[in-house]
């Protein structure tokens, strides 16, 4: 239960369901799935399970403090599954490169990714 000066909101969660609240008491996100995916960060584990590459890119941006530019809608929509423990950004990108056949460059905390021309 969360309450603010203006309203009170109650959510009942079951097994493998989660909710995220902002400090103001506003519900930010609610979901269902593997809870480990939501808390793995505390053990330095980055997990993406059947996420689009554009979703994975957002995770990588937050995780590594970088900007990621993906060129090509088809590449943005590609689904990825992976688990990376205590890996550098370059190691994660090399893993994705192996799976999707991408090329990437890293310049001043900006990663540019495109489909490989090979």
Description:
- This protein has helices at residues 35-39, 53-64, 73-77, 89-100; strands at 2-3, 8-9, 17-21, 27-32, 45-52, 67-70, 79-85, 102-107, 110-115.
- With 118 residues, the chain is of the alpha+beta class.
- Strands 6-9-8 form a 3-stranded mixed sheet. It has a two-stranded antiparallel ribbon with strand order 1-2.
- The protein is elongated.
- It starts with a strand and ends with a strand.
- Mean pLDDT is 83; it is low at 1-5.
Strand arrangement within the widest β-sheet reads 6-9-8
Radius of gyration: 17 Å
H/E element sequence: EEEEHEHEHEHEE
**Percent range of helical residues:** 25-40%
The major β-sheet equals:
3 strands, mixed
Look at the structure and give the mean pLDDT: 83
What class do helices, strands and sheet pairing give? alpha+beta
Oligomeric form of this entry? Answer: single chain
Q: Count helical runs.
A: 4
Poorly predicted runs = 1-5
Number of strands: 9
Strand composition percent:
35-45%
Distance between the termini: 54 Å
Shape descriptor reads elongated
